[in-house]
Amino acid sequence: MSILQLPHASPRVILIDWHATLVDTHDAMYHAVDDVLPRLKELGLHKRLVPPEESKTIEDAKLVKYVLDYRQLHPKIVAQRKISRTDIFEVLFGPDEEAKALAHKAFDECYRRYVGEVHALEPDTRDQLGHLRELGIALGVITNRNRDFMEHELSRVDGTGWWDLFDTVVCGNDVERRKPSPDLILKALEKLGMPADEHCWYLGDSTTDIIAAREAGVTAVFYNGAGWDQSWLDRIFPGTTRHPHQPDTVATSMAELTGLARHLLAQEKRVGRARPD
Prior knowledge:
alpha/beta, Rossmann fold, 11 helices
């Protein structure tokens, strides 16, 4: 997988993750995770942590070991602000869907205390979303957030709200299984009346986003706003039998995503004009 790869198909619809892709809600998220981790024993989850030796990377094993020992995230992880709660729970509980569901439920209870102001992750995000709509692309938000939190945040972002920018919004409690299950993506496409194919792009900043896109059968675009280098991308997306899911392409900004979409759509038009009648 290379940062320089291009998607195989132009987009008819682009579905986008919310936290750490479109907006910055890191403070509230980490406060809520900090409230959940000391309760792992109370929740019956401390014995369901992935054994460190079964972790995908050395870094994942260190995260599990630190949480097991101290019931909190390492301060360096919080300071870097590069990992989402969904990825944290994936690292901690792996394929244990029941454990992750319990962790997400506890997170939602804690998050309610901290949800507040919401700001765009990039200063031109709203403009870029507008440019994508001008290209005739349908847009949707996909989030593991509960709907009441999401509606609050979507109404408050940048002080104006972004409801006018999206054709659909699908939230964690709208489906049976949250990401990395494909359910959220498939639900959004069902609501839009569009097929799950390469002409749907899904943009997200986590490994769970890429897994969800791959499982749904759509184009997986990794949002590399954190600035990971190629060696790190190769580590978190190894393409092994155990961890096969890799993105189709990487975008480092919303402007780059818009540029990719514009390029593929223009290329499609050129090919269409070149075909004989």
